[in-house]
Amino acid sequence: MRSMLFVPGDSDKKLSKGLESGADILILDLEDSVAPERKQDARQITRAFLSAKSGGPKLFVRINPLVSPYAIDDLAAVTGGAPDGIVLPKCASVADIVAVDHYLHALEVREGLPPSIIQVLPIVTETAGAMFTLGGYAGASTRLCGMMWGCEDLAADVGASTNRSEDKQYLPPFELARSLCLYAAAAAGVPAIDTVYTDFRDMAGLEREALVAERLGFTAKAAIHPAQIEIINRAFTPNEAAIAWARKVVAAFETSPQLGVIGIEGKMIDRPHLRAAERVLGRAGLQR
Hints:
The chain has helices spanning 12-18, 39-51, 71-78, 94-111, 152-158, 172-188, 203-216, 229-235, 240-255, 271-283; strands spanning 3-8, 25-29, 58-62, 85-88, 119-122, 147-148, 192-194, 220-223, 261-264, 267-270. The chain is α/β, with parallel strands linked by helices. It folds into two domains: 3-235, Phosphoenolpyruvate-binding domains (TIM Barrel, Alpha-Beta Barrel), CATH 3.20.20.60; 240-283, no CATH class.
């Protein structure tokens, strides 16, 4: 998983176009991109799209927040289409994950689906209150497949007029949210997903942000436009130099498994470097 593309759930045309984007996951959106009067249409279109799927990218559905009047109807409408995952926006705490887990369990039984086949990806930093609950997701549910941070809703919640500086860097409160999501995901043992880059015409800015996210430890990034996917996929795919170095590290420890520290090309390499090398090879789809 490197790229996740948000696609309005009420547009057959955009959903079909998303299949050609190269994104690893399409997020069929029932929340922000769908007006209230279009929610029911979006559920029906999304359900039909799910039912017609055959190969291609994984399909997740972003439902409306649990505190909204729409969330339960969203789940009830789309579960029968067996989405690969549910994206939970404005997730307040681990209690929201537990609640969605329970709802999905009942709906999977109703639809004759295998238990826990549908994963859950929460967006965990969209409200100020959620910032104080990020340490509690470990062991929340076997459905938990990652943690994404969100910035636009958080800025609105705290009353900020902007979340970036003039040079498009995140301002300190929002950089903190990004970091806390990264730590929380690591503590929970799941991938950390970087948020969207909203200026879809600024490809250079997107590339810079994606490369920084990858270096920090994020394993994927969300997108709002198909044109962003190629850059994101490239940023989160280990290059030949990274793969070659990772193979050297793994091979060195396989040759001397009794050692805790090994010298490679003048560098002292220890067990944390080995874990990092194994992750690189895993992300590249290569065996150790």
